[in-house]
């Protein structure tokens, strides 16, 4: 799938990228990256030089998940796909433009894009260095915000809201 222009722009403007692969025991392996590059055919290329466990995980199970977000653009996306250590000359060449000593390229073929704009409809307070102002505990407790004590757009507390524990039965976005 070709990546939409707004996703490509977010990748270009992203401050940080998170990539998740699966270990042999099925637990997630999370790494951060600053070097995600869009490539042809809706793929993303990453320098794989220091990602030894990620490369090992992808060789066993190609499923991977990527989070890209841009504070400047005030948006983000979850990208679902399949990754591999790439032997394609064009992938190695692309990575070496930025990291000349790189010997490995990881290619992630994106199959699905999820827009994370759902949170824009919620009345979340902006979080500063000291945390969200006025939130002292779970919604409804002293210090919670919102017209009915919650923090969501309707005032009702929702799993995933600051100070509210996630409830797996409600299908949260985490």
TrEMBL record:
Coiled coil: none annotated. InterPro entries: Pyridox_Oxase_N (IPR011576), Split_barrel_FMN-bd (IPR012349). It comes from the Bacteria. Residues 4-99 form the Pyridoxamine 5'-phosphate oxidase N-terminal domain. Residues 134-145, 154-163 have a biased composition (Low complexity). Residues 134-174 are annotated as: Disordered. Pfam families: PNPOx_N. This is Pyridoxamine 5'-phosphate oxidase N-terminal domain-containing protein.
């Amino acid at each position: 799938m070709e990546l939409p222009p707004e996703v490509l722009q977010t990748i270009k403007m992203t401050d940080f990228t998170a990539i998740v692969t699966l270990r042999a025991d099925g637990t997630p392996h999370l790494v951060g990256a600053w070097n995600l590059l869009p490539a042809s055919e809706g793929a993303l290329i990453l320098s794989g030089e220091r990602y030894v466990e990620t490369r090992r995980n992808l060789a066993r199970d190609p499923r991977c998940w990527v989070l890209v977000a841009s504070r400047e653009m005030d948006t983000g996306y979850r990208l679902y796909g399949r990754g591999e250590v790439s032997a394609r000359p064009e992938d190695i060449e692309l990575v070496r433009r930025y990291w000349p000593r790189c010997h490995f390229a990881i290619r992630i073929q994106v199959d699905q894009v999820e827009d994370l704009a759902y949170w824009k409809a919620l009345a979340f307070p902006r979080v500063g260095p000291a945390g969200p102002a006025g939130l002292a505990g779970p919604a409804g407790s002293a210090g919670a915000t919102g017209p009915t004590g919650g923090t969501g757009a309707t005032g009702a507390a929702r799993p995933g809201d600051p100070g509210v524990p996630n409830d797996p039965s409600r299908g949260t976005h985490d």
